[in-house]
């Protein structure tokens, strides 16, 4: 049997890439229109500034240093996107990744500042905390049929206030932020990559390559193992999976635990660098967990694609901070990045539209060929 050769546009990787590019282009166009409405004079330079990010500087040391800062923030975003992706592949929408991220931050910082534990123990504590928090969502879904979106959102806020209370014991007396990690718990800081002189940045730690390694591991688990096949089968139809002998309830719980562990690990990757401190008075959940949803979809729900998608989203988010604040309000940078992030959710829609167009074109070609054959027969 001769296998029909797929056209270039019919290949999933090409469709994902083109759909992602379309989302980015539309987001930039909408952002540019908004800039034109506010102040036409600086719209062009503002949108270019967003895209340039650290290239905004004209001095190499500053460019390299800010590149390092962007990479530091890409690591937790990538882990959050992997958390969302892993759950989604199993038919679950883990909007609770934000709360699991919060638990990871709380566990890692408490172990570091209050218990003075080494970085690897703090990292493990974050992973365990996130897994347990995600496991609650999985248990509610499996045994009580509670929608994971509802329980995840509720646990986001419960987790935030729990962590605020927990970390109040290691708060700097003169500010709402936790104590500086490098000064008060140097043993808890993640090991440096040893590129301080090259990147002009001492925050570039092993978190950067570790996040990429996690992406590769997730890809292998989901696409190359029987365990991954079971999780995806459960997500497609848990009743059919149960009929086939799979333990569908266990699979849902395990999926949410792994997803929660990934998100929490992302928080540890950020806070154990000392790049940021936790504010014990914050009343909103960090956006990293929610941005992970956008990165997962922009990457076409492919673990390798999320590496590039996570970098791009963090790149434009950081680039927005360089927009001229005398010409535009400070929120305009958030607006531009938010529009692009919002449109990332349409990647699957664009892929579906492209597939429908290809199907219709194929059907027309087949009908034309059949009519030609009938004419020849006559």
Distance between the termini: 30 Å
> Which geometry do the CA atoms define?
globular
Runs with pLDDT <50, length 5+? Answer: none
Number of strands: 0
Strand proportion, as a percent range, falls in under 5%
**Mean pLDDT over all positions:** 85
Structure classification: mainly alpha
- Total helices: the number is 16
Could you give the topology of this structure?
Blueprint lengths: L11 H27 L4 H10 L7 H30 L7 H17 L5 H26 L3 H20 L13 H4 L11 H4 L7 H18 L1 H11 L1 H6 L4 H24 L16 H11 L4 H17 L11 H13 L3 H31 L1
Written description of the protein model:
Helix content is 71%, strand content 0%. The chain contains 16 helices and no strands. The mean pLDDT is 85. With 378 residues, the chain is mainly alpha-helical. The chain is globular. It has helices at residues 12-38, 43-52, 60-89, 97-113, 119-144, 148-167, 181-184, 196-199, 207-224, 226-236, 238-243, 248-271, 288-298, 303-319, 331-343, 347-377. Helix 1 packs antiparallel against helix 15, helix 4 (97-113) packs across helix 12 (248-271) and helix 9 (207-224) packs antiparallel against helix 14.
What tags apply to this protein structure?
mainly alpha; 378 residues; 16 helices; 0% strand; single chain
In short:
The protein is an all-alpha fold and 378 residues long.
């Amino acid at each position: 049997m001769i296998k029909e050769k797929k056209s270039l546009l019919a290949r999933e990787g090409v469709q994902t890439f083109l759909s992602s590019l379309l989302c980015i282009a539309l987001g930039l166009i909408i952002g540019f229109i908004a800039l034109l409405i506010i102040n036409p004079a600086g719209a062009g330079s503002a949108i270019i500034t967003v895209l340039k990010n650290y290239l905004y500087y004209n001095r190499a040391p500053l460019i390299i240093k800010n590149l390092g800062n962007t990479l530091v923030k890409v690591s937790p975003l990538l882990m959050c996107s992997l958390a969302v992706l892993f759950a989604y592949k199993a038919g679950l929408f883990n909007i609770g990744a934000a709360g699991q991220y919060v638990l990871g931050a709380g566990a890692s910082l408490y172990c570091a500042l209050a218990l003075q534990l080494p970085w690897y123990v703090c990292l493990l504590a974050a992973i365990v905390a996130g897994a347990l928090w995600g496991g609650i969502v999985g248990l509610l879904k499996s045994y009580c049929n509670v929608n994971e979106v509802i329980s995840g959102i509720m646990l986001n806020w419960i987790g935030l206030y729990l962590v605020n209370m927990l970390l109040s014991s290691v708060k700097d007396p003169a500010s709402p932020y936790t104590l500086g990690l490098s000064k008060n718990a140097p043993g808890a800081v993640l090991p440096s990559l040893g590129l301080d002189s090259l990147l002009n940045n001492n925050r570039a730690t092993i978190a950067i390559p570790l996040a990429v390694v996690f992406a590769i591991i997730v890809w292998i688990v989901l696409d190359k193992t029987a365990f991954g096949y079971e999780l995806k089968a459960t997500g497609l139809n848990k009743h059919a999976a149960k009929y086939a002998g799979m333990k569908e309830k266990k699979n849902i719980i395990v999926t949410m635990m792994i997803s929660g562990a990934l998100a929490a690990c992302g928080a540890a990757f950020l806070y154990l660098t000392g790049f940021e401190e936790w504010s014990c008075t914050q009343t909103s959940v960090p956006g990293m967990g929610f941005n992970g949803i956008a990165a997962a979809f922009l990457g076409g729900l492919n673990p390798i694609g999320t590496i590039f998608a996570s970098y791009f989203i963090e790149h434009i988010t950081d680039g927005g901070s360089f927009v001229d604040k005398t010409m535009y309000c400070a929120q305009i940078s958030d607006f531009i990045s938010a529009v692009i992030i919002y449109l990332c959710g349409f990647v699957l829609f664009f892929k579906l539209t492209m597939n429908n167009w290809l199907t219709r074109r194929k059907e027309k070609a087949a009908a034309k060929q059949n009519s030609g054959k009938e004419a020849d027969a006559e």
